[in-house]
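User: structure tokens for this one?
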Amino acid sequence: MSKRRPYVRSMDGWWRRDPFFVRYMAREASSVIVALYALVLLIGVVRLGQGEAAWNDWLQALKSPWSILFHLLALAVFVYHTWSWFEIMPKTMSLILASGKKLQPGAITYTGVAVAAALTVIILILAMMVKP
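Assistant:
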């Protein structure tokens, strides 16, 4: 006589069953685009080291429609990736008290995003002030 085998639930698409895991997987997938963009920048540094002609060729390649589309996609992914990391920041930080009360997670997230945005604007202004 054969023994009864227990039901083993399939692991296919396990992450699609819970919105938390969907957001987690989206955040992790967005890191692939971040890595690809880092590779684009690394290629730019290599081309800069190869001389002015190679650098100008790289700049010309960045003006192609596919490159512009990739940069727009990367911008959207960077915004999502950044937001999702700031969103988990309150869960990973130790307890923060303000006036004797626990600081709300939303306040931590929005403050982090605001500081990052302000620093980005400051760095952009400083970069634009540099004369070539």
